[in-house]
Amino acid sequence: MPPSSDAFCAVVPAAGIGKRMQSDIPKQYLSLAGKTILEHCLLNLIAHPRIQHIILALHPQDPWFNKLGIASVPWLTVINGGKERADSVLNGLQQARMSEWVLVHDAARPCLPHTDIDKLLALAGGNEGGILATPVRDTMKRADEQGLVLRTEEREHLWHALTPQFFPRAQLQHALSNALAQNISITDEASAIEWAGGKVRLVQGDPCNIKITHPEDLALAEFYLQRMKKTRGNMK
Known about the structure:
Blueprint: E1 8-14, E2 31-32, E3 35-36, H1 37-46, E4 51-58, E5 76-80, H2 85-93, E6 101-104, H3 114-121, E7 129-135, E8 140-143, E9 149-153, E10 159-168, H4 169-181, H5 189-195, E11 200-204, H6 217-235
Parallel strand pairs: 1-4, 1-6, 4-5, 7-11
Antiparallel strand pairs: 2-3, 6-10, 7-10, 8-9
Helix pairs in contact: 2-4, 4-5
């Protein structure tokens, strides 16, 4: 299938363990409003009219995914993830040749508004990719190893990086491959592009697009999901 400029592919790395959730199973399989967090994430992405396919990177010995109702849907390709996030994303990009530009989204972000996806997709065909982000609002402190404040950091021009992150597939694949080959620490897709000398556009996103990391995040995510469902219902 030739690459498409109208429809896009998303890569979702989900091979991690998520130890901070204090759970016996990875956080993406915890229940949230009647489905797993992962199901909410994937179903929300594929419901966007311009996302045609999703590449899901799982741990090679994942025993949970095949028990889900979406395990065999045609719009989803499941692949083996790697040791680190960057490895999983790179594996996904190698399977995403149907799309010139690719979204990479966290499996633990189920509350992504479609309006934010629209803002990212508007970058397609331009000279730079971009990421969803929110400006830092709180006072930022730099601490030492004992948890004592070293200094207050200037928060002007500081942003919280979110996902999806959206780049030309070939550019991102090249940046990740080279960074991994040189043992560069890659924390997100944008950091690989930055290291390779590319430009990354910050696209202000909705703060509801939280990453579920701690147990207390589940209640907030459920609230946002209910709000999103109500908003979409009113738009019909």
